[in-house]
Amino acid sequence: MHLLRLSFLLGLAAAVYKLWIQQVLVLLGYGRTIESLGNTDCVAIPALAACEKIVLHQPTGLLFLACSTVESRAHWIPAVDQLNTSGPANVDYFATYNHDSGDIVRLEAPLPVETHGMDVVPSAADPSQLYIYAINHRKVHSALTVGADSTIEVFVHNLGAAELKHLHTVRDPTIIAPNDVVGHSNGREFFWTNDHASKTGHMRHLSVLGLETGSVGYCNLDSGCKMAIRHLRGANGIARQPDNGTVFVGNCIFGGVHVLETQPDNTLVKKSSIPIDRPIDNLSIDKDGVLWAAGMPYPLSLLKHLANPSLLSPTSAHAAHADPNSSSQFRVVKMFEDDGNIARATTTVVHDAERRRLFLHGNAAPHLTVCNL
Ligand SMILES: *[C@@H]1O[C@H](CO)[C@@H](O)[C@H](O)[C@H]1NC(C)=O
Ligand SMILES: *[C@@H]1O[C@H](CO)[C@@H](O)[C@H](O)[C@H]1NC(C)=O
Ligand SMILES: *[C@@H]1O[C@H](CO)[C@@H](O)[C@H](O)[C@H]1NC(C)=O
Ligand SMILES: CC(=O)N[C@H]1CO[C@H](CO)[C@@H](O)[C@@H]1O
To answer: Which residue positions does the secretion signal occupy (predicted)?
Structure first.
């Protein structure tokens, strides 16, 4: 009787363990083959390297980028505990790229920014003025123990100008490990993700077991900052459906996308998730309302690449179409996949639905990739 129960329990434990291990192996890309998909009509733009985040200005087709150098990234990426302050100083920059003319403009900023996530939002009052919300991970000497001094900067940019005007620096106890940001068209409100619950420390590593989580915060320059939702696993890139308050957050550990609904008090409630068979990084929404997500076919090779950018790491991009018949259902289509030779270790994808172009870039990638779809 006891033996029977014991063997039943052992069998159950083994089954659960096998299921869990299988899930982990799938997420790590075990047994995954990398296809060649959508990667035949692409060009590389090496003048724009190590751009963590790209945002499209749809009316002009202009791409905004938050960039660095490959060497600097190998030293300093707080999100993955790369906290060596002796890398190159003040090399990060914002730029615009016009794919039709090939013009690259480095935007002069009145203060140095260690770039990460970014959003670019036309002002509701004057669409030729763009608000730029940018994560800034300032280096501090004791970074190894206390982490980066992270803030969120708000700039304003006149379309076509060569500079950014600084409006605000937001520093708050809830801005812990900021990763990505979505801003409001009034220049005064934003949601951002914390990729972890602490800046440094061993607890951060427990995130791979789901025992440590990220969060999303909300700031209003008039009323302050607060947590909008806590305990969000693998919180990474963030995007918002402009017209209806749906917020998407990529799950860079367990795969897929969290679908959140904005409440009247600007907190967020989780509604559903979009399953995708791999960890998901940064997100964007195109003109047709389709959500584009950068996939990590082999997350471990991505981590190795971030520490040593010369290593290849594959890339995928996925498009999630909302099902018109059911608000919580999405149809996900893989649109791009490459072994890393055409688009290396992509962490951010943007689709120009009007010009049928896909832009891909990576935190430590050697070049911007532009593909005709
Ligand atoms: C930090 O970077 C410097 C300069 O590249 C290097 O000499 C040093 O070994 C690095 N420190 C660590 C802990 O990796
Ligand atoms: C939505 O429902 C209509 C009518 O039932 C059906 O014809 C259509 O195929 C559905 N669309 C999707 C995307 O499932
Ligand atoms: C907003 O759009 C998304 C599709 O992207 C849909 O899933 C969601 O239900 C919509 N929300 C509302 C409140 O209409
Ligand atoms: C905003 C942003 O770029 N977020 C993430 C994109 O992907 C890299 C690589 O995994 C992450 O480190 C960023 O935090």
So the answer is: none
Helical pair 2-28 and 299-307, crossing angle rounded to 10 deg: 50
Please name which of 322, 97, 92, 78 lies closest in space to residue 201, comparing C-alpha atoms: 78
Nearest to 290 by CA among 322, 262, 329: 322
Burial class for 5, CB neighbours closer than 10 Å (0-12, 13-18, 19+): exposed
What number does the ligand 2 atom closest to the CA of 325 have?
A: 1
Q: Which mutation among 281, 292, 306 tests ligand 4's pocket best, with the greatest number of atoms within 8 A of CB?
A: 281
Query: 181 and 152 in contact (C-beta within 8 Å)?
Result: yes
For the stretch 243-300, pLDDT in tens is 778 999 999 888 899 999 999 999 999 999 999 988 888 899 999 999 999 998 888 8
Residue nearest ligand 1's atom 6 by CA: 86
**What DSSP line would sit under 225-293, residue for residue?**
EEEEEEEETTEEEEEE-TTT-EEEEEETTT-SEEEEEE-TTS-EEEEEEE--SS-EEEEEE-TTS-EEE
- Give the chain's end-to-end CA distance (angstroms, integer): 64
Looking at per-residue confidence, does 227 or 11 come out higher?
227
Ligand 2: centre distance to CA 325 (Å): 6
> Tell me: the pLDDT tens digits for 48-103?
999 989 999 999 999 999 999 999 998 999 988 899 999 999 999 999 999 999 99
Cα–Cα distance for residue pair 96/55, rounded to 1 Å: 10
Residue closest by Cα to atom 2 of ligand 2: 325
What is the C-alpha to C-alpha distance for residues 312 and 298, in angstroms, rounded to an integer? 11
SS3 32: coil
Residue with tokens 């999100």, as numbered in its chain: 79
Residue 1 has pLDDT above 60, yes or no: no
Q: Strand 224-232 vs strand 214-220: parallel, antiparallel, or unpaired?
A: antiparallel
DSSP code, position 204:
G
Cα–Cα distance between 151 and 136 in angstroms, integer?
A: 5
